Amino acid sequence: MRSSWPTAVEEIIKRAARVNRNKAAGPVGRALMAVFMPLALPRMANSKSMRRTYDHHIDWEETASTSTART
Known about the structure:
By secondary structure, this protein is an all-alpha fold. The chain has helices spanning 8-23, 27-45, 48-54.
């Protein structure tokens, strides 16, 4: 017999659905994002912290060695 109390998983699912429903942009928000994101993203991507992340290059042809491997 199943309990009438929701399980922890069911609570998490309900909470996630509620949060995601509140995040959805309406028609005005979507229009504003379409206009401003192309202007804002290049400026944000040029910040020092973003450059450190996205400018990192991995040489896939180079073999890993124990002296260069990080733990």
